[in-house]
Structure formats: structure tokens, C-alpha cells
């Protein structure tokens, strides 16, 4: 699957590497020279106060926002830009679309396709993007819906589902493209409290199965128990990162403790 | 009594679930409204007056209406109206799609040109547009595109050869539909929530497939009602082409009554045809709306 077979130390590279990534919105700098890397099988929880750039970081990784400086490499392949005549330029739209397939994204607001049934939502990627034949992928669609516990809702439309069910369909839809990294942007923040756990449970199972995941979350329990690395962001910078035990049980910075205390308060 | 019928249909099957007047003595009926009878009386009055004033009115001369309703001249005029409507709609919607696409393009030249087009079409009365087009050959005798070098032309056409009453009528109406439908398309596409595009992009969908499979199917629900309105307006606007001497339905009946002075019966003939065809268009509209309401 390595796209740079000739790259010298391909095996030594992290799966995903961000180097000095800058993102501007007009005059406002949303990301200040962020360095960040993810290894295969990592479950990274990104936490931090509102407006600190967590969503922006996630959206830059799958190029829903295009970065202004710095570089993002996936398995050594430069994402979203290329060098031509000594100048770095944006990659072609076609390249961006191809590179986005390395990632699956789950949004806070689900964004299911309302005109498709649950099964067709899950099959949308393979059918429309992958141009597969329906009969070849339908079994996988049903398998994925089984995996998120919604096999009985196959022919429902999104408007007939609860929030938690919608989010589980959205997870199955993202998985259907067989992404290498799953990105979650506050997947449970739009849900009623009693529906949060059914979604977290699905995510926990994905993590256990070895899926590489980057999760922006306010669920400190999830960050502490499921992730193997926690990243704290503030003001467009990564201000602290480490294993959950480091950040949650003592050795983390004062700023980190303050945030975790305020976020864990009921 | 549609309600009664509905209940009796379901009586045989799982009766314990259904409730209804003849079935369950505990059924709760709608609260009777004392004002209802007044509206039924009003309806009766309307029917009676309509019969008195219109149907049973010898001055309306329904025998003449009937005589001209299927008259060959009237049918020929109707055919012209229909051909004009279909061609101008088809061409106009194509123009509209292109202009809407340009309006949403990232290139400022395309955006600007589309904006100017919409601006001009909105400002100029259709009547004036039709006259300009018809007299185009007086303004621009030859339509040509010169090659950058030498004095050869890519094409060079005598304007008179392409502008006839018919083509001026089709193009004039199409330009109008193009400008108005472009705005309808644009606002319809813009009404689809941004998250839909992001979900498509996040799975690596190309812009074209995203439009075709996700955005357009959702925008169509928003687009259909104003677009149907626009096309029906254009259908009636076909009568404007009489200014450039093109004979369609309304012009036909005008020509007939200017000879025999049966103005009202002939206008009635035309209006009945407009009524019938508009009804057909409205049926088509509600079928389309139902087709695209899935899942919402
Ligand atoms: N499209 C945009 N245009 C302008 N500013 C933006 C845009 N998107 C984000 N920002 C700004 O960038 C900053 C970071 O936003 P971001 O959405 O990444 O925050 P966040 O950490 O995800 O916060 P939250 O927890 O509230 O979701 C904010 O100050 C926000 O106002
Ligand atoms: Mg956010």
C-alpha cells in the first residue's frame, strides 16, 4: 500500500506526519506550526478548550481545509501539495480526492445523505467513489451495519433514526471506504446523554480491533481509557501530549491539569 | 365520507389496533366546528352564481366556444405555442445550468460574465428582448469571429440567415428562462447544507459525482416549485412573440375575433387551453415533487 516504494526509510516513517503546519483564516492563525505524528494502530485523543483548533487540525489532515504552510505526509507521500519548478503549489483536485480516501471522517452533525436509505448511505463510498457493482459490496455494507449494531435498520431513512443510530451509520459509512485512519470530530457532542455510550462503545470496539483513530472529544473517560495518546491543544498549538496516564495522573503540565479538571467536572 | 371508507377497509385485519367510528365506542371524533356550515353555504353560493353568470349566460356563447375549441386554426396556434414552449424551455434550462455553474465557479471572469448576463436579463423586458433579437440583422449584419492573425474568420454568418421569426422567438424566450432559472438553480444548490459536501469530500468523491449523486437530488426538491412557476409563466409569455409576427395560440384567436368580433368566446377558447395545459404541467410538478421527497 506504500505509495512511495522507492522512499529510502519508508518503514521508519510514521503513518501520518504533520510538520510545522500553519493554517490561516484571513488574518487569524488557527494553527501555529503544529508538529504531530501518528503511528499505525494509535488511538489519539485530541482535547482542549473551545476554539483551540482541534477541528481545524482534523480538517487539515483530510484536506477539508487546505493548509497554508508546512507539510502533511502519509506513509511518506506529501498530501495536498507538490513541488513544481522549486515552488510548492496546491495539488490538483483529482489528487486531493484520491488522497482523502486514506481517511474516513465522522462529523459531530452526522451529515448522512437524507435521500439514501441506511444501507445506501453505507454503500455510497464504494458505489459512487469506488465505482463498485452493488452486488459486490452489498455484503460488506450489511457486515458493517452489523458491526455497528444496526442490521435491522437497513431500509430505514436517516430521518427515521435516533441521533446515536445516525452516528453509528456515519461510522459504518466511513469504514466502508476502508480508510487507513479514522477521524472523529466530537462524534458524541450532538447526542443526548443516554445515546453517547452506544457510539462510544462502537468506537471502543474499533480501537480494540486495531483501527488507527484520531478523536477530537470532550469525553475525558474515553480519552483516559481508550486512547493510547492524548494531545492537548490551546490557541492553535499543541501544548502538551503524552500517554493518558501521564496527562491524567500527575506528571502533566499545570495547564493540562487545569483543563482536565474543568472538563471532567460534571 | 372518505374517513368512513378508510376505516372500513382496515376492519378485517388487526382490528384491535385500529380505532374508528363503527368499531370502537371510545373513538374520539373531531370536534364539530360551528363555522363549517357557513363555508359550505358560501361554496353553494359560488356554484350557483358561477352557473348563472358563466355557464347559463347566452352572451358567453358557449356554442361558439365549442365550435372553435377544436378548429384547425386554433389547434395550429396551440401547436405553435407548444413547440415554442418546449424548445424555449429546453434551450433555456441548458443556458440556466451553464450560467448557474459559471456563477458558482472559482474563476472571477466566469462569475462576472454570468452575473452580467443575469443582470441584463432581469432588467430588460422580454418584449424588448424579442424585438432586439428580431431586428438583430439591422444592428449586426454579420456574425463573425476573426482569427487572431490574417484576415480569415473562424466563422462568418449572415445574421439574416439565422434570425427568423421562429428562431428569434425561441432564443428570446430561452434567454429569459436561462437568466431566471440560473438564479433558481444557484439558490437551490446553495440551500443544501454544507455538511453534505464535506461528507462527500471526506470520502474522496469528485465534484461532479458529488453534484450528481448527492447535491442535485436534494436541491431538486427546493428547485421544482419556483422552476415550475417560471416555466408556466414562460408558457403564457409565448403570447408576447406576436410582436415579431409569430402566430401562436393567443395571436390566432386574436386574428379570428378581429374578423368575426366574437371576442369573448374566442378568448375563452384560448384561456381554456391555457388552463388545460397548465393543469398538465402542475400534475407533472406534483409527480416530480413526490418522486424527490424520499427520505425527508
Ligand atoms: N472557516 C473558518 N473561518 C474563519 N475562522 C474559522 C473557521 N473555522 C474555524 N475558525 C476559527 O479557528 C479557531 C479554531 O476553530 P476550531 O473549530 O478548530 O476550534 P475547536 O477546537 O474545534 O473548538 P470546538 O471545541 O468549539 O469545536 C476558532 O477561533 C474559529 O473561530
Ligand atoms: Mg470543533
Automatic annotation (TrEMBL), chain B:
Keyword Endoplasmic reticulum among UniProt keywords: no
Signal peptide extent: none
UniProt keyword annotations, A-Z: Amino-acid transport, Cell membrane, Membrane, Transmembrane, Transmembrane helix, Transport
Stretches the record annotates as Disordered: 1-27
Pfam family, one: BPD_transp_1
Membership in a protein family: Belongs to the binding-protein-dependent transport system permease family. HisMQ subfamily.
NCBIfam families: HEQRo_perm_3TM
Protein known as: Amino acid ABC transporter permease
Organism (species): Pseudomonas typographi
Organism placement in taxonomy: Bacteria, Pseudomonadati, Pseudomonadota, Gammaproteobacteria, Pseudomonadales
